[in-house]
Amino acid sequence: MPFDTQYMRLALELARSAVGKSNPNPPVGAVVVQNDKIVGKGFTSPAGGAHAEVNALAEAGVLARGADLWVTLEPCSHFGRTPPCTLAIQNAGIKRVFYSYPDPNPIVNSKTKAILEASQIEVFENILIEESSFFYKAYAHFVRNKRCFIELKVAQTQDGFIAGPHKQRLAITKSKANQWTNRLRAYSDAILIGGGTLEIDKPSLSLRGEKGNAPQRIFLVGSRLLSPHLEVFKSNDKVIVYSYVKQPAIQDSCDFRLLQSRSFSENWSQIIQELSKEGVHRLMVEPGAMLSKLILETNLWDQLHVWVSPTSIQDGTPWAFKVQVPYSNEDQLISIENFL
Q1: What is the pTM of this model?
Q2: What's 120-152 look like in SS3?
């Protein structure tokens, strides 16, 4: 049976509004459709609040009776902080449910269909599963492993440089790769960079037009003392700073966290344990040459994305894991998963 997937695309767009806000619950979007007209929309509230389906049904009100519900994740069927969404769907009089991604939580997984069908509600699964699989990959990992999904992104020139001479900032990739990066940021709960990148590039780490919430910004600064005059410490948005040493100049302007060891591997484990405990599902790392080397050597990472530009610069700042690919006149994405 062919479906118009525009409503699921809208639901996925709505789900982005919950990224970084709904933790530890997954970000979900939902749309209620009555006679080809949208009558309700919703996304997951912060923990303890209503789920996406309940928010969408509340907006639809009586128009939900006999309507279709489009939702990005399999509706929950258990009592937690809130009652099960299956109960809300049944009570609202929904006729058909379309969902995209099966919930990996064993309490929910594959149970929803039978519960709803017992109430004569038709259920259609795996709508736009390819798009939702990318979106929910980190949540599925978090459920299985009880820790955040660690995703590194690096851009290099054809000859293996990630910056110009003396770490000079360099625009390596073009619009396609930059749009991809902004989308990944929009899907991430938090984004981490090193202190060198912070001081030299002074990045905003914004979504640059991509819809969604800006990720929590985290800086791993080692032993360098940061200046309070950096723009990131002048905004009202709190940032997290991990450091080997106390930072008297900026500690009142951020969430300061002192690292406990001189071993990078142990400190990286501390960071990941803390962020996972705080419910971060997806951690995006945009490292410089040294930080990328240190993280990759720990084996505590899950996926490495390398964008390779067709440009060669002959001289610049190399990184330790230069990727070689056949030449193309377009930016190329190489993604490597860590199975260790």
Answers
A1: 0.92
A2: CCEEECCCCHHHHHHHHHHHHHHHHHCCCEEEE
- Distance between CA atoms of 165 and 142, rounded to whole angstroms? 39
Phi, psi of 72 (to 5 degrees): -75, -30
Integer Cα distance of 156 and 239 in angstroms = 27
C-alpha distances (whole Å) from 211 to each of 43, 191, 271 are 14, 16, 28
Looking at per-residue pLDDT, the higher value among 15 and 322 belongs to 15
CA distance 131 to 137: 10
Sole residue written with tokens 């705080």: 278
Decide: 307 and 274 in contact? Cβ < 8 Å. no
d(CA 253, CA 119): 54
Annotated active-site residue in 53, 74, 151, 286: 53
Q: State the chain's mean pLDDT as an integer.
A: 92
Contact 111, 77 (CB under 8 A): yes
Of residues 291, 289, 303, the one with CA closest to residue 153: 303
Name the CA radius of gyration of the chain, rounded: 22
Q: Could you count the other beta carbons within 10 Å of the beta carbon of residue 7?
A: 22
For 127-153, the pLDDT digits (tens) are 999 999 999 999 999 999 999 999 999
Output the CA angle 43-45-49, nearest 5 degrees.
135
For residues 52 and 147, give the distance between their C-alpha atoms in angstroms, rounded to a whole number.
Answer: 24
Exposure letters 198-221 (e unless 16+ CB within 10 A, then b)? beebeeebebeebebbbbbbbbbb
Q: Are 299 and 272 in contact (CB under 8 A)?
A: no
Q: Please give the sequence-ordered ranges of beta strands (E in DSSP) within the chain, or none if there are none.
A: 29-34, 37-43, 68-73, 96-101, 122-124, 149-156, 161-163, 190-194, 216-220, 240-243, 255-258, 282-285, 303-308, 317-318, 332-337
Residue 210 falls in the annotated catalytic set: no
Is the four-CA dihedral 162, 317, 340, 185 of positive or negative sign? Answer: negative
